[in-house]
Amino acid sequence: MEEVQEIIPTPEDIARFDFAMAAASDDVSMPLIDQERKRHTPHLHTSDDCKNLITWVWSRKPEDVVFTGDTEEYIYEKTRDFTRRYVEDLPLVQNQSFHLKLARLSVAVAARLFSTDEAGEKVLVGPEHVDTALRFLDVIYGMRSFGYKRYSERRILDSLRARRNKQKAIDLLWNEDGVRTTLIRVMNHKKFKNRDFEERGGMLRDEAQDAADHLIDLGMLQPMSRGDLKMTPVLLDILRDIRRDIDEDLDREAAEEAKLDE
């Protein structure tokens, strides 16, 4: 999943893809490959059939795609459920656009199955095609070699834990000057490292490691690859409140000093 962001570093470019998947060398076991090589399967769908289907799909116009019954509302309903299960850290599944991706995939499924009217002109898209598209996404995002589904489940649990531990994190930040100073200084960075606690907060290496581990346990920091750390939305909200309180205190002190000077 992280490799997608390495290959395509700009989130808006990733968001343009309807889906992504990974292929690993051990996704299919060698015994299964050997078994398939020995098994004879009669080809009911020939290359010519597949070519004809593709050219037929390409020749459809927008008015030839028909969402039957309540299928459009069904897509919105399933979008709400699906986007609750996948986080937007990898912008393949986003609240504002996933319904369009799901609609396109559902049309593709219906076209592949030649779901048509009696004249064979209209592509008829029903709830069953939406369900198939969702199952397809769950399969490829749940693959061990991709890890998007597992990552999302972990992040959702982390978010719940962070909300429960919000007051503990607030107390920690107000009591630990080095931790608070470091996080405020790097809060606009996408990622930072343990050594930032040492360099920006004047902390010893063991203190920096303990602080990072504690914040991870509270669900405030998310460990990334290559030793990077990423702040969770709950921690960012806390830091914005703290920075606002600090700024207000400084403004009050400046106003009081100005009065004394007068």
Structure overview:
- The chain is mainly alpha-helical.
- It has two domains: 2-24 and 46-150, no CATH class; 165-261, Arc Repressor Mutant, subunit A (Orthogonal Bundle), CATH 1.10.10.
- It is built from 13 helices and four strands.
- It has helices at residues 2-7, 11-15, 30-38, 47-58, 71-85, 98-112, 127-142, 148-164, 166-175, 177-186, 195-201, 205-217, 233-261; strands at 65-67, 123-125, 221-223, 229-231.
- A two-stranded parallel sheet has the order 1-2. Strands 3-4 form a two-stranded antiparallel sheet.
- Helix 6 crosses helix 7, helix 9 (166-175) crosses helix 13 and helix 11 crosses helix 12.
- It is elongated and about 90 Å long.
- It starts with a helix and ends with a helix.
